[in-house]
Amino acid sequence: MAAEFHLRTGKLVALLNGNRTAKRNKPTEEFNHGLAMSREPLGDGQLFQVRIDRKVNSWSGSIEIGVTALDPSTLDFPSSATGLKGGSWIISGCSVLRDGRSVLEEYGQDLDQLSEGDKVGIQRTAGGELHLWVNGRDCGVAASGLPPRVWGVVDLYGKCTQVTVLGCDTISRREETRRPTATAATTTTTTSTDEGFVGMELSDVVNNAILSAYSGSLLNVSLGSPLDGSCSVTSNDALLFHEKCGTLIKLSNNNKTAERRRPLDEFNNGVVMTNRPLRDNEMFEIRIDKLVDKWSGSIEIGITVHNPNNLDYPATMTNLRSGTIMMSGCGILTNGKGTRREYCEFSLDELQEGDHIGLMRKSNGALHFYINGIDQGVAATQTLPTVYGVVDLYGMAVKVTIVHNHNHSDRLRRNNAIMRALSPDVGRRVFDSGDTEVERLLFHPNCGQKAAIVCDGRTALRPHATDDFNHGVVLSNRSLRSNEIFQVRIDKMVDKWAGSIEIGVTTHNPAYLQLPSTMTNLRSGTWMMTGNGVMHNGTTILDEYGHNLDRLKAGDTVGVMRKDDGSLHFFVNNVDQGLAASNVPSSVYAVVDLYGQAAQATIIDDIDLPPLPDEPLDGNNQISPCSLFSLTPSNDLRFHHLHGNNAVITNGGRTAFRQNCRSEFNDAIVMSSRALREGEMFEILIQKMVDRWSGSIEAGVTAIRPEDLEFPSTMTDIDYDTWMLSGTAIMQDGNTMRNNYGCDLDSLTTGSRIGMMRSSNGDLHYYINGVDQGVACSGLPPELYAVVDLYGQCVQVSITSGSPPVDNSLSLSNATEKSFPIQSPVPGIAHRFHSNCGKNVALQNDGCRAVRIHGFSHGVVLSMKELRSDELFEVKIDEINEQWSGSLHIGLTTLQPLDVSCSSSGLPSSLLELRSKVSWLVSGSEIRRNGMLQKQNYGFSMERLTVGNRVGVKRASDDTMHIFIDGEDMGVAAAGIAKNVFAVVDLYGKVASVSIVSSSVLEEAESTKPPSMSSDSGSEEEEELSPCENETSVFMATVEFMENHGRNILLSNIGHTATRVASYNQGVVASAQPLPRQLLFQIQIDRLNPQWTSSLSLGVIGNSPERFNFPGTASSIKRSAWLIQRDSVFHNSLKICDNYGPNLDTCPEGTILGLLVDNAHSLHLFVNGMDQGVAAQDIPNPCFVVIDLYGQCEQVTIVTNDAMAIGGDSGHLRCQGDVEKADVVDGIKENLCWTPPPEVNPMKTCEYQALCARFKELLPLPDGYFDEELKCNLCYCESCHKLRGDEAYYKRGDPPKDYALPFGWCRFALRLNPRCEVANVYKKWHTAYHGTCVGSLRRTLDHGELVSGSSSIFCTNEAKVELQNGYNDPEENSIQEKDVVKVSLSPTMRYIGLDRFCPKIRFKDLKSQRHHHAQVAFQVCVRPGSYKVGPQSVGASESIDPRFSNNEIEWITKERASTVLYGLLIRVE
Q: DSSP character for 1203?
């Protein structure tokens, strides 16, 4: 038989290469019509084999192969192979179909998973059996009873677009050596006992031996599938899905498979039940076939007493309030209410495609659930005898299939569970309690594919470490005993890869485990420390844990220990890193993954066990990189790792939030990581609240150590040693001791700060936004821990004060800046500027030089660290710009630089406006405190400074401030200076640039010097502190996107351009090389698609993307990820910063975005070359750039130093014509995409907008009327609208009509009226404005439109009297309308904003304590034809607005439902 395709094929198939290659045309437009058949019928034993040449990612499904008795010469080819009838057998995925109907599930290898280059073939034996071959391996009998004359069939379906015939060889193979498989006629379990071992792998032999023993009852192991006759299932009474099911469910495969239709549009109505009640001890088990990543939540499974024939199916099964028990997530719900929060360690929401879930009602009435064959224990003790199995295909879960007990592959999936049951007695020696000999811990000979065991089992290595980075898993030869440490030394490392050694424990016996490429891929019974996090079954359970393993060097040691209480601890260089996990089973094996840089490790035994945290450090004088943090008395304040059940700690211990905040309101207590010192402030910032509950945050102190506290649901339940503020009540030990305290915590909102401090005399003080509320209670003991209860409305808080973040690098240890003063990288200089600075400042020379890049203000910079007594901080003036007046300001402040990043407003434009903390400064020849004049005619005037002059500030030991000019002390400038102050300099007016020239005159104490890891003092450390030029040059030479990326990404232009080719997500890409410090990585937005909403996001990840399975969106990356999305910053999917930089959703094509990590490990975003400031801190090294081409963004290109991006237009501002034709963004055209000019930073917080917002808060208006999206609020002050590039006028409506932007006003977006259709209103209606007074706001908002009486200015008579220029209403309408109130509108605020329409109201700003006048108005959409255009009625003689005639500037409407409120406008004078 010739190895060719038949000339007749499907209509889209083209034959090439002498009819040996078949190609489907239009592969990205069509997914079927790709049938090709062999030229001649197959001979007995002939293998018809093809190679997959090309696949695309546009479709689901892939190659299908089989045989047919139909002659291709006369065949009318169907669209796909599954449409072949008349004697056709087709293998699709892992199913076998005969004439289009499934006859066998779970057969062979899944063809959908094959890749380019894989080989797949079909064979008909002389006995009429069909065999599938994949990559040269026989998958066994797929079907039998084939006719003697059949043709080979290949369907180029879905992803598969091209194949080539490799040959039609005849394979001689003894029938008795074939692996037995279930056939189409098989309905009961069969186990072959005469199998040979020819061509089989060791794992197959082991699996078959286990199953044979299991079937023969040689192993007494219970996995929920009992072998007695109590649950035997016959073919005519099989457990199937009932035909009556949820409205979106589609049943197939003889009712064994259930699938939710429209999975991307609907997330519920997917309930299915069994066709009959469950028998005692009968397993009901399903396999997850398909998931989607659009929704939260996933599959739920359980039992119900309701008969499916009589049940009115609910949308979700948890809505059923009777007779139902469901497993949801990792908890148990009874009748829709939670009865067990933590039922098992597995969560159904984290299961993947292919995982199995089962349940069984035991004969004693107990209900058990099973995950991949593992019994999770008793979920409910008593259930009724007649129950049905029920599955809810909710959220991510789309398709499941019932797995029957006789399924061969199902038992193979359970062999690991059987081995775990046998592992205590298999593969190791057993010692009685009296044994004195201890079996030595060694590596097991069964190891990863790329690993080798040498030195009698003591050493493991990857021999070809420079060629491969994974497949280096090794396990211990026996299970660990309680309190036994397994410790290895890293012998050898390579610098080619990212990532390094990983260590942990597993319940899997190494003798029977099929070792994965990396241990974190194992989804059961495994705990691993990777980087500085801990993973359980492949899911991160601790983000910030211990020392970062990726920073270890050759010679360092890592270890693991399971203690007798079931807790798991990891060790780095003999130092216990603390509790990593609890309830770890007793029989676990140690496991080491020689991943990435780690090439060789040796087991270390006979060493002294280091003292545990609760034991005294007796005699341990070894100083290691990880021990310094615990020994240092000045640790930075963080939240403790012990907390309430619903609390989650993230962001390096600085942020705490309550999970499930809309379903849980308590159990979220968090405490400080250590006891507070006398006079030390513990302050938090409220970052998120919900309006679902009553009550809010509670805060206080307790003398109970976190380790000794059993966390209650609320802290006021504690009846000893605890003082709390709840609302306005001071409570001690749960009892109210005082009411009406100076503040009410229930009234605080997002952005408020709460602080607490115990004074030296034992008084407890609370601070609200920095203001002392007075003594709350007295006589408190020392050693108190701060405690915060995230209760009710309060969801998330972050610590605002404290030391800078801990550096976990090996060379610098875990010391804080207070422990070890930062050594400046510039020789002879002891100070640096902090990276948190004014928005017009650029730092150079590694923070030793500050330059104001434009303007005359926003040039405030602070010192990196606090000044010590008598320490001089001095700068030299480098550049003067005579264009400006005014000069440099200098002084001291208690404002900590880290507090700047937590503030929504950042640093003020001038140092004179810095009033959030106490500040002393010199301006000209005046001394000011918090902006208030204290002294005049002081010393040398700053106005006379010029280039070369030196200016310094010192805090003397007598608490006075001194100013130095060119080294000369000008005398005492101020007294009563606080202890902890930072130097502050304002590059104001003509002073444009300064450099630090001061050097410390104090010798550092030995105890505060950073430890050196080598005898060469400081040499290695200095190398690590400066950027590596070689690393930078290598990066620039190889800057490109990595080949591993989201499935909808196509790379081109030598890896420089990334394009999303389908859908709106699955577009995540990452840099191929780590991002060096101080190197700017830039991309250009090439193409946007207005079909979608939202746009790209970008950031960095701390893990190598080489082995990363990218999710649908980058925001789903929850481990070591920092992402900038819209105008917010996220860390591990949690928002840590609002109002940062520009809104990325509004960036147009041509915008250049960049990322840079500075030497202080801070992440910066650059927009068109403009630094937006620090986005996040504590960025690990190495890190990789990650970009998500989401929504509108379809293509980006890397911008290199020598060439701009290819394929994109240069950015420019849109002209007015472009604006008028542009799509509406969030309902209004003035919020269109923009490109910020290179000389400005457009999205910083506006002081005028903040003032208007404070006035709005004074109005008695419910928050529910306003849009929660802050991006919809726009400020139209002069600076804001110019920075956005707004035009003065736009058109709106059908027909289009001009309107003016409300310059000088601030708009607060209102929630859309649900009765209006957004598309019609905001595209077809006109835009106008309506003036009103403060007293009418609430009534107007209540009605949702401008109605009678909403305006306190206009009435019929008044309007008619004052109409001018002959404009009057028709007389015939006057009688009917004499009681109708008219509503006045205008297309411009220049007219409707006059005092006549918008009366002014006087108010006092609570922040500045100054009085202002405010006006209010509405921006509305008005239906065309519902109003009349008329002249102005205010008697103006000159033109009011140049765009509108005075005769057409006022619109009058009397029709109801003709206006829709869009925004509230506020102007403050």
A: S
